[in-house]
Structure formats: C-alpha cells, structure tokens
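Hi support team,

I submitted a single chain yesterday and got back a structure, but I'm not sure I'm reading the token output correctly. Could someone confirm the output below corresponds to the sequence I sent? I've pasted both exactly as they appear in my results page.

Thanks,
R.
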Amino acid sequence: MTDEAHGPVAAKMISRLKAALAPTTLTLRNDSAQHAGHAGHDGSGESHFSLVIESAAFDGLSRVERQRLVFKTIGDLMDREIHALQIQASAPH
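Hi R., thanks for writing in. Yes, this is the structure output for that exact sequence:
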C-alpha cells in the first residue's frame, strides 16, 4: 500500500478508507498544485486528489456503486475540504 499524499486532509481520507474498506492497494495523490488559480482551489494545498484503490468490498459492484461507496466512506470531507476526487476503484482479481 502506498500513501503518496501527505497533510491533514489526506491523512483523514486514508484513515477512513483503510478502516472501512481494508484495501489491498491504496494510492492517494495530491493534484492540488495543478489546479492553482482554478475554481475550487482554496489555497490549502489539499483540494484536488486522485485515488487508486483496490478492495474486496468492491466485488460485484458497478463502477458507480464503487465510487458511491468511496464518497460515503470519506463522508463530510467531500462537503467541506475536497473539491475534486478522481477515483479508480477495483476489486481484487
């Protein structure tokens, strides 16, 4: 498992995802610097992320259901602290 993003928002996301989904792969990348000056960039340095996650919890779920499960897991962070989250979610083969 690799945690590439650092900072308080990333730490909360990683903690919640690990606790709820027990991922076999988790890579979180902070893309915020690429969005400086764009809408949704709040200057915190933690507003835009890319997530690659593999978990048995996704087995049998559609792509949309997997994304919904990720959003449910990170909960209120999407409402207040995260402007954009790109998700690549899969179940183990």
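A quick pointer for reading it: Residues 8-90 form a domain with the GMP Synthetase; Chain A, domain 3 fold (CATH 3.30.300.90). Let us know if anything else looks off.

Best,
Support desk
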